[in-house]
Design brief:
Radius of gyration of chain B: 21 Å
Distance between the termini of chain B: 38 Å
Strand content of chain B: 5-15%
Distance between the termini of chain A: 23 Å
Oligomer: heterodimer
Radius of gyration of chain A: 17 Å
Number of helices of chain B: 16
Order of helices and strands of chain A: EEEHEHEHEHHHHEHEHH
Largest interface: A-B, 23 and 21 residues
CATH architecture of chain A: 3-Layer(aba) Sandwich
Order of helices and strands of chain B: EHHEHEHEHHEEEHEHEHHHHHEHEHH
CATH topology of chain A: Rossmann fold
CATH class of chain A: Alpha Beta
Shape of chain B: globular
Number of strands of chain B: 11
Chain lengths: 261, 420
């Protein structure tokens, strides 16, 4: 998938965007871990849609993280990127933290998107079902929460780097720290910025996708999202935890294309 | 040289298998391990020891702020300092310090420090730590990436509040106050000496130099490892064209004194081991929230503070390693004198925070070690910086005619006006 740098208008944040395909515009917003080295589900979606996958500031090549501090900044930045790409009424797909941002975008400007897909989104909090604190995980603790197949997860999370090499480890540590530092602005210490108060504004047709075996955000949250968004449909994916697009790309892409049409 | 006797106030009743059975001594430590009835004894014993340190001649007595942990029992160091202010009248009261990003609004710190300065007759040393990541981020919920920005704003507000003579409006990002108008104000002008405890963030050096604050390096890996970091600080001092007064720097060191080296091991080894194995048993995921340190600091690779690797090392350290590698300065007065001289010259520091109560050390050993240090070590180290002997920029300036409430109370007791 090819990528290019764009600059948002007036705020001037430099964003790397991966792009492929043609057809209806579809913007994919990644989760707190960022895009992986390979994202096969995006290639599959590009067979049918014009796919754009921007990286948030502090992720990959994107910069300007010091300009985004709170939820409103993140939400407006999302629309700034859509504008900088010159898109009109795209589909929005957000995964995990990206789902939170996409849902906020859809609340802020409900008429500016066509359809919304939320994949195991964060952003709600049920006191009886606290979400584990990803900011207190040790590096080796992520895979067990995020992936149904832990070995696959470990390989994807490290992007094939040899973490026994101190230099590679140090680089990985710093990049990870930079990403999660940014994510923390909307997720720390509790990933709830009162979206539930605004979600009545979300009128776009919505699909909620969840891995049946999600150990990070249990499926009880899927039911809560459905309750808050009466028009939302729900698809549960077998043998997937928190990363269905990576774990079950076939089932994921099928569900998404069936919904988007 | 100035010597401040510091009590971290650890919980001394962590079980023998604490490390094996528990996730972390900080943040999520089971609070069923805390016993308030024992706590009553512990607080009084620790505060008595601080008062004792004054009586044997330490220049300062110190306390600090930590939350939700068995390592140090002072969520509010100002409460301890208030007790000390009434029961002492000579020593500086070093509160190192208040984590200013955690107070809402931080004007509270300006007020409480002013109260302490006034009650103590101008003996306050005011510390402004960012706080450990465990305290600031995990216990008190501050967003890591914004913590330093919030700290900087709190610092600006407190400084102005101490100095301005008219009410002013403060339109901050984190604090909006229409009327800032400090009552009471501190005795020391323009403000009490300010100490910035650092654990290895390089931005902190410039901050200290911008305002001529003392940089206090707090570490439990000892002076040999501390040297690399403090060398970096002194390089920065030179580059900025500041004078190299050793009083710009402070270092915290664990110290155990006995009659002989052998006696030191016999008396103190178990308590030092308690400290490193139980009090520093911190879950690695709580040590350094992403964003707590800047990328610049991470890249500079100056993370000599608690990291996962050091954590793994602690339980394996023998007494010999702890002493040889300088984690702990221990032994006879002669041994301790020599090592202290190495530390003072090697790190170029004029202030030592002496950590003499260690882990679960009983009262008698603490006093024994304290007294030996005061009588047989301290006098030999007093004049190590003759060329800077009149440099009082980082020391308190108490009122000459301050009250001595502890003596008034003692007199009343002797006169039978107070129950014994």
């Amino acid at each position: 998938m090819k990528s290019r740098m764009i600059e948002t208008k007036r705020r001037g944040i430099n964003v790397r965007v991966f792009e492929a395909g043609s057809g209806a515009p579809l913007v994919f917003l990644h989760g707190a871990g960022g895009l992986f080295a390979e994202n096969p589900f995006l290639d599959r979606l590009a067979e049918r849609y014009h796919v754009f996958a921007p990286e948030l500031p502090a992720y990959g090549e994107s910069t300007g993280e010091e300009l985004l501090e709170d939820m409103l900044d993140f939400t407006l930045h999302g629309w700034d990127v859509v504008a900088a790409l010159g898109l009109s009424k795209p589909h929005l797909i957000g995964h995990s933290m990206g789902g939170m941002i996409a849902a906020e975008m859809a609340c802020l400007a409900p008429n500016d998107l066509t359809k919304l897909v939320l994949v195991a989104p964060v952003g709600l909090w049920i006191p009886e079902h606290p979400i584990p604190d990803i900011f207190a995980f040790l590096p080796h603790e992520f895979a067990q929460y995020l992936f149904y197949d832990r070995a696959q997860g470990e390989a994807l999370l490290t992007g094939g780097l040899d973490l026994k090499n101190p230099e590679a480890l140090s680089e990985f540590y710093i990049a990870n720290s930079r990403r999660l530092s940014m994510a923390g602005k909307i997720l720390f210490p509790i990933p709830n910025r009162r979206l539930s108060k605004r979600v009545y504004r979300l009128t776009a047709p919505t699909l909620v996708v969840w891995g049946k075996n999600d150990l990070l955000i249990p499926t009880v949250y899927a039911a809560y999202w459905q309750k808050l968004i009466p028009q939302a449909q729900l698809t549960l994916i077998d043998k997937a935890a928190h990363m269905p697009p990576y774990e079950q790309p076939e089932a994921f892409v099928t569900a998404v294309t069936r919904f988007l049409g | 040289m100035k010597f401040t006797w510091f009590n971290l106030m650890p919980w001394p009743y962590l079980p023998d298998d604490f490390r094996e059975k528990n996730h972390s001594v900080w943040v999520d430590i089971p609070n069923t391990l805390y016993d308030p009835k024992k706590g009553h004894q512990v607080y009084h014993q620790y505060m008595d020891q601080l008062e004792y340190a004054e009586s044997v001649g330490f220049d300062g007595i110190g306390c600090n702020e930590h939350h939700q942990n068995g390592y140090g029992l002072m969520p509010s160091p100002n409460i301890i300092a208030a007790g000390l202010a009434r029961r002492t009248s000579q020593a500086a009261i070093a509160v190192i310090g208040n984590s200013i990003a955690l107070y809402n609004p931080p004007i509270r710190v300006a007020e409480e420090f002013a109260m302490l300065d006034v009650i103590s007759g101008g003996r306050l040393l005011a510390g402004f730590p960012v706080g450990t990541s465990m305290d600031t981020n995990y216990c008190y919920g501050q967003i890591p990436a914004l913590t330093r920005d919030k700290y900087a704003e709190a610092h600006e507000l407190i400084r102005r509040a101490w100095q301005e003579e008219e009410p002013f409006a403060f339109d901050g990002k984190y604090n909006q106050l229409r009327y800032v108008n400090l009552w009471p104000k501190p005795i020391q002008k323009p403000h009490p000496p300010i100490y910035i405890p650092g654990g290895g963030s390089i931005e902190t050096w410039d901050f200290c130099l911008d305002y001529d604050y003392n940089y206090s390096y707090l570490s439990f890996t000892g002076y040999l490892r501390g040297k690399k970091l403090l060398d970096g600080y002194w390089d920065r001092v030179a580059k900025r064209g500041k004078d190299e007064s050793p009083y710009r720097g402070a270092f915290a060191q664990t110290i155990c004194v006995a009659e002989t080296d052998q006696e030191a091991e016999k008396l103190y080894a178990e308590h030092v081991s308690y400290f490193y194995n139980r009090c520093l048993h911190i879950h690695g995921g709580f040590a350094d929230a992403p964003g707590y340190r800047t990328i610049k600091t991470l890249q500079a690779n100056v993370l000599t503070a608690i990291s996962e690797d050091v954590q793994k090392l602690f339980p394996t350290l023998t007494w010999k390693q702890l002493v040889d590698e300088g984690y702990v300065i221990a032994g006879s007065p002669a041994t301790v004198r020599d090592r202290m001289k190495d530390l003072i010259k090697g790190l170029h520091v004029g202030h030592i925070f002496c950590l003499i109560h260690v882990g679960n050390m009983p009262d008698w050993k603490t006093r024994y070690s304290t007294k030996l240090f005061a009588e047989k070590v301290m006098p030999y180290l007093r004049d190590m910086w003759p060329e800077w002997k009149d440099d009082n920029r980082w020391w308190c300036k108490p009122l000459e005619d301050r009250l001595q409430p502890e003596k008034t109370i003692e007199q009343a007791r002797q006169d039978g006006r107070l129950p014994l």
